[in-house]
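Residues pack. Consider this:
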Amino acid sequence: MSFGPPPSVYTQSALAADGRRKRRHRMLLGVGAAAVVVTLCVGSRLLMPGVKAPTVAEHPAAAPAPDEIRETAEKIPATPEGQVVVDHNEGGLPKDSAPNPRYAPGTWATDKILAKGVADRIAGIKIEPGYDETAWTLKLDGHICAASSHVTVDGRTAVVVQPAKRKGTKDAGICDEVVFFDLNTGRKLWQSQMPSANSAFVTNTNLTLTKGVVAVAWGHGSVAYDMKDGRQLWNSTGVSRCEDKSFAGGRALLALEECGEGADATYEIQKLDPRTGRTRWTYGIAKGVQSAYLPSSDPPVVAVAAGDTEVTDLITLDGNGKRLATISMDHYDPKCGGRYFGAAYFGEFEYCDGMVVGRHQIYVESKENDEINEPETWIVAFDPRTGKSGRKIDGRRMEPAVPLRMNGDDLLVYRHSDSDVEPSAVVSWNSRTGKETPFLLFTLPEGDAGKLSDPEQSDIVVEKGRVFFAKRELTADDKHPKDPALAVIGIGNVGH
């Protein structure tokens, strides 16, 4: 029995509603071995009622509220030796699943649970060595259309769903159901239907979270809900010059506004009051930009593709929406919009898998380097105030360096190894001193390592001293189509 979507689960009407760009799809190289360093438009918004630990901020703030967005700090373990703590497989994949994969958007972790979105459900997998045990399953009303990587301090998040009850009707592709749930228990906290969302599809629906608010935009409308009870706070569904294309959440709420259509479209960035939808400031992007992304709301950073389909520049803004710097991406690849072979599935405008934005630095991965005996990629730190580059951390020959997330003021970096001897690694890097500290050392399963290690094909999540690699598309093995397929592998510290 297959739990995956049939080939037409995302209908042609949905695909036609939001034309997707054609991009090259990067496949992770890695057939050789290399050393792993183990150095030790306010008008359209209708207001509605109702060995050394990583460096942290010098003046830590008060304990965050439960409904704030989680920003955890990882402790460097006494030993970086890793062990498998999650080894989860998915069965029932159809034999011809390669051209029609079972989509698995959304990966989240707490101290006890790894939660994974799979088709029309979310599985909560117990984090424990030697077991593949599902602690809970949250059955949804249809397939997941959009997911956010943001999680609240107390372990809650949301997805947008395409209700299956419309199957066989003209509205079959509509994604208009928001589900807010608890990651530790799998309990659905509330569910709400998005207003006037007839044009919300898997190709254009984008979901985010900020303090106390869940916000969704789909290019022709938007809506925000109170996390506490699912009460609608505001929406934007009227016709106006500019439409909410996407939101960026986290510490603040930014809106990516598209003004006009097609080749004549222009973009604006707005900072919004999350509770009312009112615009606090607007930054207008120059004409000629093909697309834009919002990898960070605070500090505000915009990735733009000017005269091209790939990102050409990063624009940094101050707290009032004034431009600080423009950083050329001529030699860098922030990997914005690169998931699902360039198709805009499951929300894409907040994801740039080749970059991480910290409070004081922006870290961007370089483009691939084909020179023999040279690092395949490296990561450079940029000052968002000036745009000037600082220190860099190198990958290895045939082994890219991938930025994962901030850890206090340090950056967590993943290095994949295809060597039979040298392990893959997650390291903590201090860009101010250049010091690199091992966090976890491990080996990924042969045959799956390439896909798991590619951030454009798999989620790589670090949380509570573990790193999880979770595929976004599940397919049956060509030689053994009846065997369950690896979906998630999690590595923890042997002393954890």
In short: Confidence is low (pLDDT under 50) at residues 1-9, 11-58.
